[in-house]
Request: fold
Amino acid sequence: MAWLGVLYIGSLVLLFITAFWSTDPFTSKVIPGFTLENFREILTVPAYQQTALRTVGIALAVTALCALLALPLGLYMAKIASPRMRAVLAIGITLPLWAGYLVKVFSWRITFMTGGPLDWLLTPLGLNGPGYGTAALVVTLSYLWFPYMAVPVYAAFRQIPDNLFDASADLGAKGWTTVRTVALPLLKPAFIAGSIFTFSLSLGDYIAAQFVGGTTQVIGTVIASNINLNPPLAAAFATVPVVVVVAYLFLARKSGALQQL
Amino acid sequence: MKFTKVLPLAALTTLSLALTGCGESTPASSSASSGIQVPDLPAATEVGEGEGQVNIVAWAGFVEDGSTNPDADWVSAFEKETGCQVNRKVGATSDEMVQLMRTGEYDLVSASGDASLRLIAGGDVAPINTELVPNFGNVVEGLKGQVYDTLNGKSYGVPIGRGANVLMYNTEEVAEAPDSWAPTWEEDSAYKGAVMAYDSPIYIADAALYLMATQPELGITNPYALDQEQLAAAVELLKQQNGIVGEYWNDALKAVSSISSGTAQMGTGWQVIVNLAQADGGKVESVLPKEGATGWSDTWMISAKSKNPNCAYQWMDWASSPEVNAKIAQNFGMAPANSLACEGSTKNEEHCESFHATDEEYYKNVWMWTTPVEQCIDGRTDVTCTNYQEWTKAWTEVKG
Reply:
């Protein structure tokens, strides 16, 4: 346990210490010392602020999209589908987890390609695919992290007794009203638990952005491009997602969702 | 007009003046003390018994043992002949290569000009005793003693080859062969949203190069020597370009898929990307536009902490031999450094013809990647130029 603490917290502390160092402008070698220059840089230069805000926005959009898709799927799997269909869907959801990350990202890259599968589907409708950019990035990330949202939501749906739905129907509620007033309050912890995954994983991703993001710059890509040239600046910028995720976890804890994990 | 011969000399003089570190005794030298100090490291004196292995950081396609492509194999014979097992690590970018060399785990690197100065000044690579590399003598004229691998009269690199960052275009999307970089920079480009740009701070030099041709009043004479104002102008142009760029690439294979599929219709690239795309049946061509281009010249450099110097020297000489140098150059799609690699077969002659290997006129229009430093390497002494760190920060701003 102590070792775990040292490994986890220790590396974060080291990262944080590095953020106060500087680099030799010519050889780009790291010079230990103490300077607030890196933090001043990321807090005052608009490019860093825009990148941070954009990344948080993308992470929230991914989380919302995953939640929207997980709700009907969880409902169907837990309450409507036959046991056999349920097994098929459960395998279907978790199957992408077995595929390599790069394979998945690259297949989305091909999907969004000009004249690729998506364009081919949309052309008869007189539409064009969005091409590489923020929209493609949100879709790709949602696909990557969807299982982390779908599984807890489905599990929570299974735990809701059927007679609650019957009671709700007896009292005259239509299907959607039942979901809204009975199921959603009971599912809230599961959604929050899933959102911790989708949100923090999206916040830290940089490879998907390079493959399908087009010109989109996110926190991860800025860190990746600075890690070789200016490690202290990369470290300073890496504290941004750490702070955001800690704040997110704090809010989640207050809602009591973490007991579900 | 570029002073190919004069420039390195001028730059060397400026650098060496700065390196002496005594500003008061050097007349009219730049007042900016950059703190560049080149560690005085010894070069090897002899090549002894091989250590049994050599660890190399290289660009994809430089160190091939037949596993990627059965036709590309010049490692197996080397291993058999010398008993040195070759362990290759592919570096994706110059910046990554610098970082990998700093770990001290590698003996050799195929460094481009934008990495070499950093490695030399950082004390990461040692000077090379060229007498121990017999094939060094046949290097083509334009690659001898370049500013990016020679300091204080010491050679730090054994040239491998050179190439230009050409303008690639998809012939299905681009009706007429372009002769200028303009469509990749101008706001009203016909290829808006489908332009491909290189994802690295060194790409700022491409903007500077275009400004040299289109805005002479800025006074840029070397795309790697930009003062604050000139850098700001280049950044301005890059931000404008950001609006028409569909994608920034830093991975050659990604670039191949974009330009072949027409997702990118034109943009900066390497000949090797064009070759790979054409091999896959992609309708891709390349040109060297009238404004000239940036380029790169790669050299083998040996780590100052090399644990296997004997095998490393054997590799450098092996890779510089006419046969192997020709293979590397033809596999990667660049001009070989060894002039004899252009002889001996029709294939070699044709390759050198298409890559202008011995055509110094052609390379007069190609500005080789050089690490930007505070001393202006165009010879100006009244201003301080921007260094690579400033370029890096500017690059983040460009992408916004």
